[in-house]
Amino acid sequence: MNIFISKKSQIGWALYDWASSPVPTLHATFIFSVYFTTVIMPEGGSVVWAYMTGITAILVAIVAPFLGSYADSSGKFKELIVFFICIGSIATGLLWFARPDTAFITYAIIFSAISIFFLESSFIFYNAMLGKITKKENIGTLSGIAWGGGYIGAVIALTIVLAFFILPESPAFSLDKSDSEHIRATMLFAAGWAIIFSLPIMIYLPSFSKQERRYSIFSSLRLSLVEAAKIRYMTRFLFARMAYNDGLVTLFAFGGIYAAKVFNFSQLEIILFAICLNISAGFGAMIGGYIDDSIGPLKTIKIGLIGLFLCGLIAIITPYKLLFWFVGIGLGLFVGPIQSASRTYISLEASDIYKGGLFGLYMVSGKLTSFIGPLLYGWLVMLSGYDRVGMSVVLVLIAAGYLLLPPKDNTRN
After folding, report:
1. Which of 184, 214, 229 is the last residue of a domain?
2. Judgement on whether residues 89 and 223 belong to the same structural domain of the protein
3. Which of 50, 98, 346, 403 could be cross-linked to 108 through a Cys-Cys bond (beta carbons 3.0 to 4.6 Å apart)?
């Protein structure tokens, strides 16, 4: 039951996607990860970074059910989001001190891991609040707007960083390029962005009451597992999401590499391609939110997976660079709705007192096996010598996710 529904609380909630999305974009994808693997640790840095991100993802998966269950039993959803975004943002900002020297390898890895862990874990509480601050008939629209806003915010932040810090001969604030200050400053920018745009969620969202009966974290986790088993098709949905999410992880991890190796994209073309993909994913998520409210999250996910499979198939078999550009951007139109509708499916299926615990399990389904797709991609490329063969694993995982999805959408009852 929604205890507090207002436009301010909904806007505050939706802005969190906008606030948090630039951090992984600038930190883990485009800027700092490249800086770490090419400047701080040019020898073996990619391997160390991969281990760090993999171990952090496993830790998130392990603790997610406990964090979600604690939120359910304590009612401290808002307070936990504020705490986690603050710690994650501070850790991100402290990467400013990671100078271009091998002496900062451990420092950079530790604070990068803290940043990733706390910011990703914050989405357990954030997602669980969706069903608490809007009516059932509008839940898809709000989720889509928020998710789309996250993509658009990441693009805007990346564009600002490129225009003022990375590309100019003389970066803003007279930053010293010889000491990589123009790169390190992007982490201060990302941290500041996250804190500033998280203020509405801190100010306007309500605090939620505790459960009438207090449970220990372990007892609350056990009850969440029992609840998940009682909801028809919930276990099946989580396994389906595990499969297609692994496909999305692989697509994001190797999309740029695939474009460079198969179609000879330059670094600038890869960045422009990523910007276009994020914009299309943002608009796709917003449009998908309205479709979600109209036909339900399960049908929205199925349509998205079909579109993703067809675009991916064309991207793998086409020899034409221009066609790859079109279908590559088209991928985004389907990625956004899949991600947004997956969140609304859990929100609509979970009872109010178990939302945190079920979103903890949802986080597990997105993290526990996320290494499988990239691993299979690497093996297939190594065995065949062709990146096109490696990318085919995305189609297999997308198809597996589609086939595992529940046959019926209980949220439409």
Report:
1. 229
2. yes
3. 98
**CA angle 32–170–161, rounded 5-degree value:** 35
**Cα atoms in the 13 Å half-sphere on the side-chain side of 189:** 26
Per the structure block, which two tokens stand in for 377? Answer: 């991609």
Nearest Cα to Cα of residue 404 among 238, 229, 235, 240: 240
Least confident of 163-177, 213-227, 275-289, 336-350: 213-227
Residue 25 is classified by DSSP as: I
Count CB neighbours of 163 within 10 A.
11
The closest alpha carbon to 270, from 257, 282, 279, 280, belongs to 257
Would you tell me the crossing angle of helices 7-20 and 181-204 to the nearest 10 degrees?
A: 160
| Short-list 203, 232, 165, 239, CA closest to 409 | 232
Single residue among 202, 229, 256 that ends a domain in this structure: 229
Write out pLDDT tens, residues 214-267. Answer: 555 566 667 767 777 788 888 899 999 999 998 898 888 777 778 878 888 876
Report the phi/psi class of residue 170: left, alpha or beta, with left for phi > 0 and alpha for psi in -120 to 50: beta
For residue 209, what is the DSSP state? P
Q: Which two tokens stand for residue 299?
A: 């049908």
Say yes or no: 180 and 261 in one domain.
Answer: no
Give the residue among 138, 143, 141 at the shortest CA–CA distance from 123: 143
* Closest alpha carbon to 132 in 365, 351, 357: 351
Token pair, residue 24, equals: 């992984």
Query: Domain of 13?
Result: 1-229
Q: Say what the pLDDT of residue 366 is.
A: 84
C-alpha to C-alpha distance for 269 and 287, rounded to whole angstroms: 27
Residues 144, 30 within the same domain = yes
Read off the amino acid at residue 394.
Answer: V
Distance CA 17, CA 251 (A): 21
* Domain count across the chain: 2
Whole-structure pTM value: 0.87
Q: Domain holding 36: CATH number?
A: 1.20.1250.20
Contacts of 156 (CB under 8 A, 6+ apart): 22
